[in-house]
Amino acid sequence: MKLEARDLTKNFPRGKRxxxxxxxxxxxxxSLASGSLAVIAGRSGSGKSTLLNMLxxxxxxxxxxxxxAGAELYSLSEAARSRLRNxxxxxxxxxxxxxxxxxxxxxxxxxxxxxxxxxxxxQRALELLELxxxxxxxxxxxxxxxxGELRRLAIARALLLHPQVVLADEPTAGLDADNTIKVLELLxxxxxxxxxxxxxxxxxxxxxxxxxxFSMDAGTLTAQTPPANAGQSA
Length: 234
Known about the structure:
Layout: E1 3-13, E2 21-32, E3 37-41, H1 48-55, E4 63-68, E5 71-72, H2 78-88, E6 89-92, H3 104-113, H4 122-131, H5 147-159, E7 165-169, H6 177-192, E8 196-201, E9 212-217, E10 220-223
Parallel strand pairs: 3-8, 3-9, 6-7, 7-8
Antiparallel strand pairs: 1-2, 1-4, 4-5, 9-10
């Protein structure tokens, strides 16, 4: 098991009156094994992104635990958690997280230089840029890219170091139909190669590539009936 959460909950303060809270994620257990792709679908505001950020070590839960590759994320120091995330987790965050001062290629290579003195895997980065169809933009700056191109940059960066766990928040947002399928095939390929992959989305196409599907509503996670073509592309 590469990722496991137990009794995970997240509350936020609500309103000005002391003691009022909003429960974004209600107590849940979740696990994801190597070689598996899971999809969590739900409307905006259902708690999907909050859950993913807790699983990624980006948002401290109100209660519960998250184990990634045998380590409990929130028992680690912030520095140790950041290093584990860089080495073990490929994260595609919601929104655009490219560094504006770097080129597209440099942004993709960034995880390889944060904690390593080894030469960056430039060939791997170029292959990923080719797979997401933005190799021609390798020398461009993020300000020159469309929203969909920035999403594809984030996906290439997340997969650079062959992470054990891939957490993708709306990875196909802003993509046309052809690029949506390319990205989902790439994530499916990561799972087939041994990664534990979680895709959070409100789009239906992703379920065609999933081994397991879940729905999230008002902070409650519910397992869905496995798709007949689990793990198969459209």
